[in-house]
Design goal:
By secondary structure, the protein is α/β, with parallel strands linked by helices. It has 2 domains: 65 residues, no CATH class; 173 residues, 3-Layer(aba) Sandwich (Rossmann fold). Helix content is 43%, strand content 15%. It has an 8-stranded mixed beta sheet with strand order 1-2-4-3-5-6-7-8, with helices on both faces.
């Protein structure tokens, strides 16, 4: 019996005997990210960055100058996972700020969730120049969509490999860890209590999305079902949908088609130059 099977067996037994206890333990595990080191290919982008600390302690990396593009990585992710996209944005004349999410990297906290991610985006937006765009990957994408419902302002928003609702990942995690039905229900309730929002309300089909946007997903994503991209696109009137055949959950971040689509959207919503306005 492998270790995962053993853990599932223990969780199944404890879940029947003490569902609240095991749900509490799983809730802590679910909300406590590991800080994983950057890969070798991320190091050049890390070395070229400027480390900044925002007012409430959030840490971020900054590159370039120009209209501000704010990036949010996914769960247990890092700003430099966007390396190819960051370089393309800087080359195109944008200033890029990529956050360490709460409890990630050098940002404070021990636990995190999608609501805390969204609040971090709002805090950053309050300190930075007006945002030209917000780009989020995975939970970062879900948090960007949520933040848009909490007052986040930007000319464009990009969601990459993001779930269309949070209840699905919660249930998937609980089943994966072997929790029986009663323990799964307690687990969801405890996550909701810590996040401060009912999980059912964290669903793009309940959102009013009025920012021009782009939804990107790879068909071979093993983490978030590719069908979630269509759900997000259908709920988001002013959005474009880019489906990639390959790219998994993270490799697509460096796909030239994704980079081209992002730059195209940002160019569409860019304000006319002062000279252009003067000629009108």
């Amino acid at each position: 019996m492998n270790s995962l099977s053993l853990i599932r067996g223990i969780n199944a037994t404890l879940g029947r005997l003490a569902p609240r206890v095991i749900a509490r333990r799983m809730r802590r595990q679910f909300m406590t990210p590991r800080n994983l080191p950057p890969r070798d290919w991320e190091m050049p982008m890390l070395g070229s960055s400027e480390r900044i600390t925002l007012r409430f302690g959030l840490s971020a990396l900054r590159w370039g100058s120009g209209p501000t593009v704010l990036l949010m990585h996914g769960w247990e992710g890092r700003p430099t996972q966007f390396a190819s996209l960051i370089q393309a944005l800087v080359d195109a004349g944008y200033g890029v700020v990529a956050l360490d999410a709460p409890a990630h990297g050098r940002s404070p906290g021990r636990e995190a969730n999608v609501v805390l991610f969204a609040r971090a985006l709002l805090e950053a937006a309050g300190e930075l120049p007006p945002l030209h765009a917000v780009i989020g990957h995975s939970m970062g994408g879900a948090s960007a969509l949520l933040a848009s419902q909490m007052g986040l302002q930007a000319r464009a928003l990009v969601s990459i490999s993001a779930p269309s609702r949070i209840l699905g990942p919660l249930r998937s995690f609980a089943r994966y860890m072997g929790l029986p039905p009663r323990a799964r229900a307690h687990f969801v309730s405890q996550v909701e209590a810590h996040a401060g929002i009912p999980a059912a309300s964290l669903d793009v089909q309940r959102y009013q999305l009025d920012i021009p946007g782009l939804v990107v997903h790879a068909a071979d994503d093993p983490v978030v079902p590719a069908g979630d991209a269509q759900i997000i696109h259908d709920a988001w009137f002013d959005s474009q949908l880019l489906r990639l055949e390959l790219g998994g959950h993270q490799r697509l971040l460096s796909d030239p088609r994704l980079i081209s689509a992002v730059l195209g959207l940002l160019a569409q919503v860019r304000e006319p130059s002062s000279a252009s306005r003067a000629l009108r």
